[in-house]
Design brief:
343 residues, alpha+beta, Helix Hairpins, Immunoglobulin-like, 2 domains, 7-stranded mixed β-sheet, 8 helices, 12 strands
Amino acid sequence: MTFFKLPIWLKANLVVLISSLLLTACDTGILDPKGEVGVQTKELLIVTTILMLIVVIPVIVMTVWFTYRYRADRPDADKDFDPQWSHNTWIEIVMWTIPIIIIAILGVITWKSTHALDPYKPLETTSENPPLVIQVVAQNWKWLFIYPEQDIAVVNELYMPVDRPVSFKITSDAVMNSFFIPRLGGQIYAMSSMVTQLHLVANEPGIYSGLSSNYSGPGFSDMKFLVHAVDNQGFDNWVAKVKAKDNKVLDTAVYEELAKPSENHAIEYFKSTQPNMFDYIVNQYGSDTKQQNQFVAPNEVNQRDNEVAVTGGLESDLKNDGEGSINPAAPSNKDDAQEADAQ
């Protein structure tokens, strides 16, 4: 008996079973996170999927059952079938109540998770464990990572200490791209002349895959890099390796050569960088991003919007008052005007 000759209900169950088994094998992606942000993202995906399956599974089961129950060759097909099409109270209650409850729950979860997982929101840190700043530049077709505190730069390789939050400042020197480390957390777009932000942390040592998740041309499929989560000593040893004497300095001339399109670009180290190199890359097309894309807490956003609304309302009222106000020195009617002229 082939798969296609099986009953439809059995085929549907086999498809669901096989899909579940395949998902359990996803041990290298977002379902096997190694960082705080990735864990929260996984939990959000699982909860929302379960809530959606509360609707999806009954619909699939009923579709299969109705197809079988009311098939043309059923034994009682010759009997009269007179359903009540106009109204059914229980169906109406179930059909409206369950979706409303699920949508309300999803709304609350979405609101909380949107603020909790805001990529611009810095992670909690201490004075003993400040965030590591890494500036990211998406090029055709490679990634440039600049470490301003360590004064180094690397192509297609990323090192970060375990349990130390990392603040990514991301831009592009080509078409729009997307920076993504699946096992550490969400992705964020990289755009020319703009700076986007992403805050991640690796809570377990290991080597994780990073990639571009936005098509950007012929070299897109090889636009990958490895993320090495190591202890502090391992990170310091790597920085010392990058600062080796035979590595080049990343200045504007070297950068212009590096920015040319290339595929399968090998890992490349720069022992030092020209001051404000990242700002030069961002502003080379005339952009000023000094105050751009800064994280603002939700309560500050509401306060700011209210202040703008009040200020705008006052300006509008003053304008309207100015247009409709009466000049005390002006005559109030035609007779007063004639009297004023006579005087």
